[in-house]
Amino acid sequence: MWKLVVLLFCCLAIVLADDSRVVSTAQGPVRGRLLPGGGVYGFYNIPYASAPTGADRYKAPRPPPTWLTIFEAEDRKIICPQHFVTQTMNVQEDCLVVNVFVPDTDEANLPVHVYVHGGAYQFGFGLQEKFTELVKSKKKISVSFNYRLGVHGFLCLGTEAAPGNAGLKDMVALLRWVNTNIASFGGNPDDVTLSSCSAGSGSLDFLTVSSLTEGLFKKVIQESGTVIGAVGTQVDPIQNARNYATVLNFDNVNDLNSLEEFYKSVTIQQLISRTDAILNNEGVTSRFGPCVERDLGQEIFISDTPMNILSRGNYTKVPRMYGFTTMDGSVRLSVFDTWKEMMNEKFSDFLPSEFHFDSEEVKEQVAQRVKQFYFGDSPVGEHNFVSYLNYNTDVLFAFPMLRTLSTRVGALGDPIYLFEYSFVDENSPGFPQTDEIGARHCSQEMIVADGDVTAATNEYKRMQEIMRDYWMNFISNGYPSSSDPSLPTWTPANAQRSPHMSLGRQIVLRDSSPIPERAAFWDELFDEYFRGPIVDMDPVPTTTPTPTPAPGAASSLVMSNIIFVSLLLSFYFTLYLN
């Protein structure tokens, strides 16, 4: 009998050994497990850096911990502090962890794909998208990770305690970790491709204009986000900090010393308690996000505006896939019923916060001009709902990407493979206010990522095959080629934003710019009114008074903010949970 027990134990040990893989990293050994379905090993929640906590929580990340025994790299669902979370999430202030997905192969020097999650810089987590099917079928390594969010990751006071861009510095730490450790997993540290959509895509643009990232990646896939527009640079980061402190019931906001001490003294729970107030209507760049930093004698992410850096051509030049969807403005779908009234009452509140006007009169004149362009003489309503989507698509995503592209190419920069994604099929959801359907925000990323396609149409499966082919060939060789000889050859765009690949029910390389008339309209306004972020901030505090923080939250928010946050959160969490 005992021989049978020993035999069973040995068999179990062999099975467990085959089910796991131990990799040596610079911090110590880590053990990953074979994922259900086989073909891919998953290494979850490995610390790539340490997030400072308490009064230091806004500073750059610190080195990661080390260990001698094997670190069990299991999925503990760690996420960074954020306002809305599900009960299955494990919120930690020290949340800087990386996930690595490795194909079941002994091959080395595999191409590496690093995914940066989106979420308006306010919420999200590394595992909200997975690319394990690509890892399994294409022999690539995929990496995802957390970074600090919202005020926690992007408070920018220009002080030693809160210099700014902590979340972006987390990304730099992650890329350095990949450069040091990915070879142990079978990856090539000199063949790293970054990809993302929305705010994650914007962060990729920021990573390319920072001198801290030189040599850490070779290719970029940017989708629906750049350094201006919806996920661009904070125009006035100190005013944003004052506004949010007021929401948290702190009064002495005009004294920068007191403001800094307030933010150092609040708990992390108090800090994130009113994230809903950050996603307000009057200019998306009034929320916490990337900023231009002051030189404090520390490592600086960027010290000039991104557009200035791009114009000079002094940045990391890499090949990139670059595009948006025809209805990226669907991120503002759920607030339509509220915002149509607000837009009819005061349309100027919806102009880009990056624009500067000499007077309120000029601002109102420009607002009327924009409203006329999109809606004509009619009020905003159900009858012109598609115009509402077009406006938000253009002002938040499409035009900012096209303008940035022209600046990059004009500076003799990157080869950019431009696309407009419009694919829909009979299963694509329609919009409640109209019979029309369209490619929603980040749908070009979702079709590439993991997902259940058992009920999908053959047309959808075919498009998924095409998109994954473009993606993975670009990751492999820096060019979005297709194995299908019937598809057109994709050539880089020029400064006139042409040609571009139209990725719809038909795949066509168009010798033109996407949305040419709408882009020309915004080019004219941009040339005249774009200001960009404030670079000269208030003086650095020299004293440290101790204010009395009032941790309660004010409730002077319009309902549209809450609806918008809920929409985006449900969008991202649905991707992960499904």
UniProtKB/TrEMBL annotation:
<keyword id="KW-0472">Membrane</keyword>
<dbReference type="InterPro" id="IPR029058">
    <property type="entry name" value="AB_hydrolase_fold"/>
</dbReference>
<keyword id="KW-0325">Glycoprotein</keyword>
<feature type="signal peptide">
    <location>
        <begin position="1"/>
        <end position="17"/>
    </location>
</feature>
<keyword id="KW-0812">Transmembrane</keyword>
<keyword id="KW-1133">Transmembrane helix</keyword>
<dbReference type="Pfam" id="PF00135">
    <property type="entry name" value="COesterase"/>
</dbReference>
<protein>
    <submittedName>
        <fullName>Juvenile hormone esterase-like</fullName>
    </submittedName>
</protein>
<dbReference type="InterPro" id="IPR002018">
    <property type="entry name" value="CarbesteraseB"/>
</dbReference>
<feature type="transmembrane region" description="Helical">
    <location>
        <begin position="557"/>
        <end position="577"/>
    </location>
</feature>
<dbReference type="InterPro" id="IPR050309">
    <property type="entry name" value="Type-B_Carboxylest/Lipase"/>
</dbReference>
<feature type="domain" description="Carboxylesterase type B">
    <location>
        <begin position="20"/>
        <end position="513"/>
    </location>
</feature>
<keyword id="KW-0732">Signal</keyword>
